[in-house]
Design a protein that fits this description.
Length: about 400
């Protein structure tokens, strides 16, 4: 039996864990340790669940802290209880790197073979201040060294791990993200010349997603007379509260054509939201993952207007499945307002029909390499490689 662990059951991370466990269950018995799932029952039909506490809905700060401590340590009891029947423990999402380190050490002491899925080699937000960044990098390197197998979503992440100090590439498996395909999107009426370009900037609100320069770029384009509409949808964490307020203030200065919805988007609402837009806007900088948002877009026939940061470099083909946001210097990852505006102008010139064709080409290309049946087999093979050889 395989044990899969995810400390999160909501958002794209939760959906990923459900997909992963469900696909692995096609090959051998799987137990998933995770908070309760509100969605994804179809994906988990053949998966045994071991539930841990879910704290997202708790409002009291003190209660959240107490539940967070409890939620951080309660999985260890499940690791111990399941060891009799399970020999491999797959960490799909185990929290911040100090938590992951504790879990990996416990798993080693229990005798598990371990695999660690790394969505982002470097965290979106580091835990330590800049003066202690070297210590944090050393901590990440130590934690990654504890796992028997590391799994990343794109080849660039292998280079990122090497830059961090992990040289043994035989411990690293590259497996694509997997597709977040949705039920049929609502049909849109045929576009005419008066129909503007509708852009969606989706996912957790963070500074590295360059939302502020995106707002400024759209405001500048609308001032030029281009009918560009930007919809920003996603939840901001407490650590991004100041950035969220800065975005709101920027919009308030010239609000026409721009909306910001600071809220988690439920699974049932995704088809309408994705169907609304002509393209996804992903002007990311200092980014290390393959991007679940980009795969969501392409899997559902929507082109991406994106930088080539992190795994986006391997997903985006300029003019084929989207439009590249180009930086002035490849050694400088800064994404400027001017670069975003230029990319949107080029997307506008492609037109609705051309963008729809880009989206369909993106869907076809990604389905061939990253559909869940394909990805599931790769994960299962990786876990099989951890099994102890049968005794003669």
């Amino acid at each position: 039996m395989i044990t899969v662990f995810s400390i999160i059951s909501s958002s794209g991370t939760g959906r990923y864990s459900a997909h992963l466990a469900g696909e692995l269950a096609k090959y051998q018995p799987v137990t998933l340790i995770a908070p309760p799932f509100e969605d994804h029952g179809d994906l988990l039909a053949n998966v045994r669940l071991r539930e841990i506490v879910k704290i997202e809905a708790v409002k009291s700060r003190l209660l959240r802290i107490l539940l967070l401590i409890y939620a951080s340590f309660s999985p260890i009891g499940h690791f111990i209880a399941l060891r009799r029947d399970s020999d491999r423990l797959y960490f799909a999402n185990a929290g911040h790197w100090p938590q992951i380190g504790v879990y990996l050490l416990v798993a080693k002491l229990c005798g598990y073979k371990t695999a660690l899925l790394i969505h982002d080699v470097m965290p979106h937000r580091m835990l330590f201040p800049a003066a202690l960044r070297g210590i944090e990098r050393a901590g990440l390197r130590m934690v990654y060294s504890l796992a028997d197998k590391l799994v990343v979503h794109h080849a660039g992440a292998v280079a990122d791990l090497a830059a961090l100090g992990l040289k043994r590439q035989d411990r690293i498996a590259v497996i694509p993200h997997g597709l977040f395909d949705l039920p049929a999107l609502p049909a849109r009426p045929p576009a005419d010349k008066s129909d503007g370009l509708r852009l969606l900037l989706f996912g957790q609100i963070r500074a590295n997603k360059n939302i502020l320069p995106s707002i400024a770029a759209v405001q500048a384009l609308r001032a030029e007379g281009q009918n560009v509409v930007l919809r920003i949808c996603g939840k901001a964490s407490a650590r991004e509260a100041a950035y969220l307020e800065a975005c709101r203030a920027a919009i308030a200065a010239r609000p026409e054509g721009i909306t910001l919805e600071d809220a988690f988007v439920a699974e049932r609402d995704l088809p309408v939201l994705v169907g609304w837009c002509d393209a996804f806007l992903l002007p990311y900088g200092e980014f290390y993952s393959q991007s679940g948002v980009a795969t969501l877009a392409l899997a559902n026939g929507k082109p991406i207007i994106a930088s080539k940061s992190g795994g986006l470099a391997e997903l985006l083909s300029d003019g084929e499945n989207g439009v590249e946001i180009k930086t002035a210097d490849s050694r400088d990852p800064t994404i400027s307002e001017a670069a975003i505006a230029d990319a949107i102008r080029r997307a506008y010139a492609i037109g609705h029909a051309g963008l729809a064709a880009c989206g369909e080409r993106g869907r076809a290309r990604l389905t061939a390499s990253s559909a869940w049946p394909v990805v599931g087999r790769l994960h299962a093979a990786m876990l099989d490689s951890l099994r102890a050889p049968a005794r003669p």
